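Our collaborator T.R. sent over the components below with a one-line note: 'Predict the complex.' Nothing else. No constraints on interfaces, no templates requested, no preferences about which chain binds where. So this is a plain run: every listed entity goes in together, and whatever single assembly comes back becomes the starting point for the next discussion.
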Amino acid sequence: MKTRNQKAWFLVAPVVLLVAFNAVIPLMTVVNYSVQETFGDNLFFFEGMKWFEEVLSSERFHDSLIRQLKFTFIILAIQVPLGVAIALAMPRKGFWASVCLVLMAMPLLIPWNVVGAMWNIFALPDIGLLGKTLNAMGIDYNFTRQPFAAWATLIAMDVWHWTSLVVLLSYAGLSSIPDAYYQAARIDGASAWAVFRYIQLPKLKHVLTIAVLLRFMDSFNIYTEPFVLTGGGPGNTTTLLSLDLVKIALGQFDLGPAAAMSLVYFLIILLFSWIFYTVMTRGEDK
Amino acid sequence: MTLALKNVSLRVDGLMHIYDTSIELVPNGFNILLGTTLAGKTTLMRLMAGLVVPTHGEVWFNGVDVTGVAVQKRNVSMVYQQFINYPNMSVFDNIASPLRLARYNKDEIKQRVSEVARLLRLDPFLKRKPSELSGGQQQRCAMARALVKDSDLVLLDEPLANLDYKLREELREELPRLFATRERTVVYATTEPSEALLLGGYTAAMDEGRITQFGPTGEIYRRPADRVTASVFSDPPINTVAVRKHGARFTVIGSDAGWRVCDAFTRVADGEYEFAVRPHHVRPANGVADGAIVEGKVLVAEISGSESTVHFDMHGQSWVSLTHGIHCFNVGQTARFLIDIDHSMLFSMAGELVAAQGG
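Returned assembly:
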């Protein structure tokens, strides 16, 4: 008879522990909170689906969800085409290619709260370079008072911070296209548009799928930068989902509703990502 | 159609890629560029196509100087080592793409595509995407794109290199037939001497950015103009050793070993030469007592399928013997080999061909 080697368990143990403490246990805690009412002194009462019903029918949740979707849609619509365009325009080799890559990587290296603080100061109407310049040009701009200005600043900040990611991914995708494709297209007499449409874009498909997924999920998770920049204001106009969540959970200490809301929020991200990924990879090699 | 390169050279970033080269391709013929990797085959093809402009010299196409003319105005097509197709177009659209860009009408496109697809046995796959085809079919699709256009010049850059052995054999047989159907000049780059011999036609041997010789393939194989061409046209590399001829005998310089001078070399003046023989004309001298027998220490011995390759030390030169059948040797043992002197070449010490017999 063969003895089974149990040593394998030791080898997977670190990963199991890491994932357990990092993801599974926190998520289960949240599930646990989401069905209970919390009082001080660690008193919990089972409430069933009450919080879910409350969250799903609350106007506040609808508003922040709509705000969130609007934000995500706008930044994707700007960052993806802009990122691809910059990647196409970047030199392929030589000194300037390195310079461009370093410049592009820079925003990604800056800590998120610093990005928020930078843009906050940059956009202040009285002392900020951007805010003061705009006002001096006769444009009435104050992101702490005007909802539109707050949105524009928020989006400009996110575009500045994250377009680089799309650029770097697309650049890597473009660099992997063999030169022979471009030669073949030149011999055929294909236009620059045709080269983009029939060679570069299809070859970038996988990279862009990943880029859109990453940006989609990240935009839902965005917290630090808008928190530092606008704090969700003026009023609630830039209170995105995560900001709202933290307000409920920590500001009001309503753990139950906050937990139910995070789960709904988690399922939305999962659902969107799954649909998008399935559609993008449909009909490919099994 | 004619294509001539006149004193063409190419320098990129101070490095010579192609040295002063003149060649007139055989019109409507099968022209092979034979050379190792980095010999300049692809670069020369790109010069012929017009994808790069030469630093010096002129490219003449059908009697017209087209040196600076853009590639899309020259009516050429090219097939690459990688399988280059438009990834998200169907096979039909891929084959049709050069015709669409040249603004052919719909019926003609349909008729031509199905004609070429039939020729390349792609007709069952016209609706598929290239990624849904096997490697051989993908390359046939790329070839169909090159053939459909009626171009005057077709450049094939190692088109079979990425295919497995069996598909390579199959397509290699089809190739000359496919391209013989219309009047066009074909240039075919390969690293394999055996492929050049199988394809026939005309061969230009290339080495380090130069064409060393151009002529009918068999002719170049049998009578290479110099040592470099002989080694380009031999795989494994041709065996050479410095010898001294005196009367009817060659003696290896620096040793007592030697053999009889074959008939074709008897008229050659006495003196020092480079004696060369291809690996498959050196075989183990099992029980043979007579003839050009040399002794050497075995360095490497390999048996692959039905062939035996033995590397041995020939008075300081590494020689290779390639024979059919299984011959077992131990590394380090001294073995005797028989040189087939009726298939040998003699080069001057400067590398020029002096005499050749039997190829």
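Summary for T.R.: The radius of gyration of chain B is 24 Å.
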